[in-house]
Design a protein that fits this description.
Elements lengths: L1 E4 L2 E8 L2 E7 L6 H12 L4 E7 L16 H16 L4 E6 L1 H12 L4 E7 L19 H5 L3 H7 L4 E3 L2 H4 L6 E3 L2 H6 L9
Parallel strand pairs: 3-4, 3-5, 5-6
Antiparallel strand pairs: 1-2, 2-4, 7-8
Length: about 190
Amino acid sequence: MDAKLDDVPVHVVEHGGGMPVLALHGAGVDHREIAGALEPVFRDRPGYRRIYPDLPGMGRTPLPDWFRGSDDTLDVVLGLIDALAGDEPFAVVGHSFGAYLARAVADRRPERVAGLALICPIGEEAGDVPAHAVLHGSDSVADALSPDEQAQSATTSWCGRPPWWSGSGSTWLRPCPSSTATALGGSPSTGN
């Protein structure tokens, strides 16, 4: 279904009935990202109307020419929840950029937000964080690599895709692009 707000046709998928739960996905994806994470949670929990919009410029929701940033996205999200939930209390769940927006929704509609869940929210930089530690290692992943790949993996950050993405075995492991390694705090020259 599409909800028309401020001349923006917002694509929305809904499941269930009951208290509205607005679920906001992260940047660069669409509603399926967060729906895929939340629907298994709600499978055996009736009484919740899950509302999954595609944020402006993502999925099936176009980005209007007049959009200038996150404030405009927030205005569309607030208009959407007002249109779909009216004065009814609602919960809001957000992942990454969606969590950033969810915090703003809770700030702008505190009297109506019955619950707030933030999954990997973006926002202020963390201060003191503990050193990285491997809590559970898996030798089976390395066993799937050839000796050359094992040698390379000792000095390279690896990005993985599920085996169903492009085959099975080591074909789904590949070195991270320099931009990804840098974004993850690694060195673009070695990827680690």
